[in-house]
Specification:
56% of the residues lie in helices and 14% in strands. Strands 3-2-1-4-5 form a five-stranded mixed beta sheet. A two-stranded antiparallel ribbon has the order 6-9. Helix 5 packs across helix 8, helix 6 packs across helix 7 and helix 10 crosses helix 12. InterPro entries: Transp_IS110-like_N, Transpos_IS110, Transposase_20. Pfam families: DEDD_Tnp_IS110 (PF01548), Transposase_20 (PF02371).
């Protein structure tokens, strides 16, 4: 029985890294070679490397696997990548589903690290590659702007409520107006930074030109599409993209007794779906294939948002096709 590969499952939290080191053999059996907890800091990662190097067999590959946990996993992921240690980042729901398939419903940091390592032993996972600095900045700016827009919407709703009250408080309304002006300035600053960032990067500049050639797509939508998909480099086919965006269809049917309604999963990237909502709304009001698709879906469901979903999916696939072929949108393409 020969050693096949070595796997390090890492459960990440804000302050701790709990690791589980697993050896997998040629008959696909596994054996734990150690587990330990380290601080989620640069010094803690140095100690992790020292601990790991004492246990690995340098003749066989070692893959480090962790869950995507907001921003808490980023320090470990980037440090491992910079140290040229193959790293894989997995969505937490995949680990959870795998643990349940083993009838494991307990949850501790040690168990989670073990499940991550065993999940990697049961699957072939692609190594993670970090986005470019410009791409990281683009994602940070687009998400920051969305937070500002959401906050501005909340404050405007408060303004409407106060104005409708029996005795509108003048000082409170004055402060609300000041907050709205402040948020407007911040949103404008971010839009300016987005333009400068895209102009400074050849790939982003070309991508922006391609996406803005599409109907209904302007600066913000184009930037969100590029930021959340790494300029579509994360995907090998359109089905992967649709599932990543949470725009895939989920069926519920079994035998003759279960006849559930098909629905959009909405389990993917919510930032993509939010960015595509207004463009879909815009093109659905115009003449053309998108409008016909919307009218067909609206006649079927009699629900505005449900009818927009297929239009959002169509726009996303169109953006993917244009980006992959490096082609500007041609409204007369079907007539040529």
């Amino acid at each position: 029985m020969l050693l096949f590969r070595q796997l390090l499952g890492i459960d990440v939290s804000a302050k701790k890294l709990v690791v589980h080191f697993l050896r997998q053999y040629s008959d696909l059996s596994t054996k734990c070679a150690g587990s330990k907890s380290f601080d989620n800091t640069k010094n803690g990662l140095v100690k992790l490397f020292t601990w790991l190097d004492k246990r690995i067999d340098s003749a066989y590959p070692v893959q480090c696997i962790m869950e995507a946990t907001g921003v808490y996993h980023e320090l470990a992921a980037y440090t491992l990548h910079d140290a040229e240690r193959p790293t894989c980042i997995v969505l937490p729901n995949r680990i959870k589903a795998y643990a349940r398939s083993l009838n494991n419903y307990s949850k501790t940091d040690d168990i989670d690290a073990e499940m991550i390592a065993r999940f990697a032993a049961a699957n072939k996972l692609n190594n993670w590659a970090p986005p470019s600095p410009h791409m990281r900045q683009l994602r940070t700016l687009t998400r920051e702007r969305q937070q500002i827009v959401n906050e501005r919407t909340e404050v405007k709703c408060q303004r409407v409520a106060y104005r409708a009250s029996a005795h509108p408080p003048a000082k409170t309304l004055e402060r609300i107006e000041g907050r709205i002006r402040f948020l407007d300035r911040q949103a404008a600053e971010i839009e300016k930074e987005l333009k400068e960032l895209c102009a400074a990067d050849e790939v982003l500049s070309r991508g922006l030109k391609i996406l803005k050639s599409m109907p209904g797509v302007q600066l913000i939508t184009a930037c969100v599409l590029m930021a959340e998909t790494d300029c579509f480099a994360l995907f090998n086919n359109r089905n992967q993209l649709i599932k990543y965006a949470g725009l895939d269809i989920v069926d519920k049917q079994s035998g003759t007794s279960v006849r559930g309604r098909s629905k959009v999963s909405k389990r993917g990237n919510s930032h993509l779906r939010a960015a595509l909502f207004m463009p879909a709304k815009t093109v659905s009001k115009k003449t053309g294939a998108m409008s016909q698709l919307f009218e067909k879906q609206f006649a079927k469901y009699n629900n505005y948002n449900k009818a927009l979903m297929p239009v959002q999916r169509k726009l996303l696939l169109l953006a993917y096709a244009l980006f992959k072929t490096d082609t500007l949108y041609d409204p007369n393409y079907n007539n040529n």
